[in-house]
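Friendly challenge for the regulars: who can give me the structure tokens for this chain first? No prize, just bragging rights.
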Amino acid sequence: MKQRGSRSARTAAAQAGVKADRSYGAVSAPMYLSAIYHYEAFGKHRGFDYSRAANPTRAALEEVLAELEQGTRAVAFASGMAAVSAALGLFGPGDRILCSNDLYGGTYRLFEKVLRPLGLAFDYIDMGDCARIEAAIRPKTKALFIETPTNPLMKIADLRGAAGVARRHGLLTLVDSTFMSPVLQRPLSLGADLVIQSTTKFLGGHNDLIGGAVIAADAKLAEKLLFIQKAVGAVPGAFDCWLLLRGIKTLHVRVARAQETAGLLAQFLAAHPLVSKVFYPGLAGHPRRELHLAQADGPGSIISFELRSAAAVPAFLGALRTILLAESLGGVESLITHPSTMTHADIPAKEQAAVGLTPRLVRLSVGLEDADDLRRDLERALGVAARNRRKLG
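First reply, four minutes later:
Bragging rights claimed.
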């Protein structure tokens, strides 16, 4: 994958922050912990005055994020949800947003509990069907908000097709591409206007920071986001920006290794008698698998799967020893979560059921541990759950 100019994304990531220090040539980007900056004279500073508006460490981070996503400008935020909120700040009361119908629970909570009372409206559909997208657009629809693959059911949206529909109707296309990272999917190159990343996840990669970013294809949109960033002030601190720069340096090797292991584990889970369904774009038969692979460079390392009984879930999760029960993804440690009671608990049960999210489903983020260790951990825990299920009748 080549970026603007001749530099590849792999090189851009490995050299994240290099040359940011123009004073001494430090290879690791300096961490500027200052809140304020000295003016050289009245009305004259060296590019920075107050770190809410701009910070040199954050500027180095935003530069590499824009390059990785093939965008004009990246705007960093203190969390993934702050990034989503900033992107939605481009719209106002009465505007409608057409959304994927299987969203991360935190995004749904923001939309329905915070932004709807302020006058925004949200409609939810399957973003893999362009005819349905076209039919769902209303006079006040202003944008598409897409997750692909979705969290947690791994539904695939048609990025090229959806962006084409949006352009014909004068709408913006916003894509949360956190599950893929820019290593595997670059929505701006497929016609999207904004891509959103929870940098907490794959980009940071070590479960030691919280962050988010919005990357814009268009300079005018970027300027609007920069204004929102400065006005609201939900910015990451210099230390988190530095950690993120360090994490990005190993992004490509981490994603490749985790994806390789995920493919092996998905095959194992698909063949296990206690598992009724596996949601993973790398498996033959996954809905719209070919579409996904036509717009992404791989299936990723997130696997969702259903057990045959909801009663088996607590025993299974409780029996895991290597895989950690925790609410995140994309880090070096393998994590597992129960979406209906954890990450998506704020979505009413009726609406969970309507999109196919059941209490039998768990979501696994595959990390960098030995593949055999992870398989044995899953196999042993599934055995415990099976025995417990037989005891319960």
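The chain has a mean pLDDT of 95. The longest helix spans residues 371-392. Your move, everyone else.
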